Write a sequence for this structure.
């Protein structure tokens, strides 16, 4: 009988996991692994069959009461043999007692519901070439601002503190991070990162569609001719309208799901989620 064991992924393993995710059409960032590993070094599990990686899942703990599940994959030729569900159970055991979130692809959502998750909103990935940013919104390099200010702002839109993740996410290699500031206060924040196909923008936080549009347009202008992609939550209708107004086209759908209560965050200011894998 083949030997199946579950181990904690190494930093090098995360490179392989992002390649698997790309093969699924998720288009992760080229350097996302740096922030992912910093978030929770023991939060990535790999199922190995006779020593060879065949399945994976991320089960990252945030604070004392929240967790996020992602990267749930089994190599296509080995699906249906029970390796994925064994890893799922081990991952959920690691998050036991927490409210767990995930962004589930359409064909897996019935399975997640059977495991105790419920849908709260739909994320629709919108892609394309947005028009030039309108004038009138003052934007600065987010990396020039005090990190504590950025972390406090992020906490308005995410269910738990995640400083160890946020720092490399904003300032990691190849990333462009912009903030809208007025009267010394943050009014918006967005980060763009390079991917194998369209560049991904996330998160996109803003006090208004005008600020969100300025952030997206300015980020896109830093790499002219390269399409951008934003995972837009339909719990904020203004975000959906903005994506359509910018001429972006829907291309990929997931559902934000939770095992517990819907976290109390600023949905009206959430114009794009950070990542499908870690929330």
């Amino acid at each position: 009988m083949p030997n199946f064991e579950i181990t904690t992924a190494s930093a090098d393993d995360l490179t392989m996991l992002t390649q698997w995710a790309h093969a699924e059409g998720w288009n992760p960032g080229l350097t996302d692994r740096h922030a992912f590993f910093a978030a929770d070094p023991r939060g990535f599990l790999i199922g190995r069959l006779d020593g060879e990686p065949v399945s994976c899942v991320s089960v990252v703990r945030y604070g004392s009461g929240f967790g996020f599940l992602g990267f749930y994959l089994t190599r296509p030729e080995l699906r249906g043999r029970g390796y994925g569900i064994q890893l799922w159970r081990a991952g959920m055991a690691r998050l036991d007692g927490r409210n767990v979130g995930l962004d589930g692809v359409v064909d897996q959502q019935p399975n997640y519901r059977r495991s105790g998750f419920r849908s709260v909103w739909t994320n629709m990935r919108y892609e394309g070439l947005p028009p030039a940013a309108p004038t009138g919104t003052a934007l600065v390099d987010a990396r020039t601002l005090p990190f504590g200010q950025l972390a406090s702002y992020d906490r308005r839109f995410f269910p738990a503190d995640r400083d160890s993740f946020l720092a490399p996410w904003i300032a990691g290699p190849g990333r462009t991070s912009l903030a809208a500031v007025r009267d010394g206060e943050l009014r918006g924040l967005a980060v763009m990162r390079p991917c194998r196909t369209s560049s991904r923008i996330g998160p996109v936080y803003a006090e208004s569609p005008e600020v969100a549009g300025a952030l997206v347009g300015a980020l896109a202008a830093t790499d002219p001719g390269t399409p951008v992609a934003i995972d837009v939550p339909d719990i904020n209708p203004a975000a959906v309208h903005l994506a359509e107004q910018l001429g972006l086209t829907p291309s990929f759908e997931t559902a934000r799901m939770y095992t517990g209560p819907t976290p109390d965050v600023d949905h009206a200011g959430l114009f794009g989620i950070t990542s499908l894998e870690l929330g």
Remarks:
- The first helix runs from residue 11 to 23.
- The mean pLDDT is 94.
